[in-house]
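Mods, move this if it's the wrong board.
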Amino acid sequence: MNRRTLLGGLGSGAAFAGLAPAQTAARKTACYLQHNYFLKNGTQPTRLAEYLGKTWLPAVKKMHAGPVLVLEALIAAHLPQVSVITGYASVEELWSLRARLAADKALEAATTAWEKGAEPPYEFESSNLLEAAPFSPEIVPLNPAPKAPRVFELRVYHSPTSWQQRGLLERFATDEARILARCGAQPVFFTSGMIGADTPNVTWMTAFEDMIAREKSFAAFSADPEWIKVRSASTAKYGESAAVRKITQYKAAVYSPVV
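Not the wrong board. Structure tokens:
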């Protein structure tokens, strides 16, 4: 992914088209872009935080009405790693913002300066475009704000077939999301992978006050009698609809608009 793709992709979490941001309550997020930076220890993590927090986010904020979440990986297949998640009212909004950010000369100059450091700004990137499920909540800042950045857990459940992926979404919609919340998880979003790795899949995220709260919540969920019945019924109907599961845990970056 080249720099202009990066500028468009990251910024497209917004609701732009040259207008003032719409009221949050009036928006309904239709899709998310998850953009991942894979780094190495050294100058890259600090330089990326400086760039995102002081250059990219302020530029996007001027025209952004959708959610932005910046996450630093705690437990992942590759460390260090930073994930930027942006929400869109439509896919068309992505392309609108892409064009506007690519035309921003100040942002282009700052991005070029970031890229021309003593070492490359990152090792490689990846992106996933995710379609929000009808029952997915909106990403909004907590009120009151948490005392410390929360722990976020991203799960990618790959289904062998589209039929089984639909069954998996059905399970989340009717029961699983509700039971997770009852057991202490804070649902962030529930989506289907549109473009990216491991499709078809259900990609979903929950948040917790800290790792202790995370462990307590999933222990309660795993032992929940209703969940055990729901899982058994789903398996009987659809087979093993989550054949491959990938789990990544993050903390919100201190400069993330949502922590």
